[in-house]
Amino acid sequence: MTAAAPPAQALIVVDVQSAFVSGPAAVPGAPRLLERVEDLTARARTAGALVVHLQNDGPAGAADEPKTPGWELHLPVREGQREVVIRKPEDDGFKDTPLGELLTGMGIQALAVCGVMSEMCVSATARTALALGYRVVLPHDAHATYDIPAAAGISDVVPAAIVSRVAEWALGGEAEIVPRAADVAFVRPARERAASLSPVHQQIPPEQQPAQR
């Protein structure tokens, strides 16, 4: 675990959607997680870093099925030149999305990652970022998941905190794990977002795009 890390040029907020962070089905410690994510987001904005909100499109009937209340992003978004929403069909935020194009176009080399779930979408996105050569900073107190239920003949319940810690460890030595979100610093990217990159809503199938106002 790293005490501190050089500044990141982007913050990737993974799947902070209402189904996972509010109500009786929220991840354990959701209020604390939201405080950490809000702090990271506020400081990234102030520094002029890129903020990317990943929004998972779950299958029909899932808690995060598109256009259901649980699918909505739980925290306010300020879409603009340095803040975007990217919908994703898989755990990995890079797969079949414009995330890689966006980061490359802005000359970004270092990412901070936060959100849910630690061993699923957070891990998958961080792992691909590492494989692509990005620095990845993961604050320990800014990602979360659920308990793993007991399985007869295999294990008792595995607490969510243990699952999250194992997910960090499994990323290997290249990931920069810092104890607190407060330990993460941000800096402005090398370049502005390219005008040629399609706006986020153009990544959504036409029939799902919101009406223009």
TrEMBL record:
InterPro entries: Isochorismatase-like_dom, Isochorismatase-like_hydrls, Isochorismatase-like_sf. Keywords: Hydrolase. It comes from the Bacteria. The keyword Hydrolase applies. GO terms for molecular function: hydrolase activity. Residues 10-147 form the Isochorismatase-like domain. It holds the Pfam family Isochorismatase. CDD domains: nicotinamidase_related. Signal peptide: none annotated. This is Putative isochorismatase.
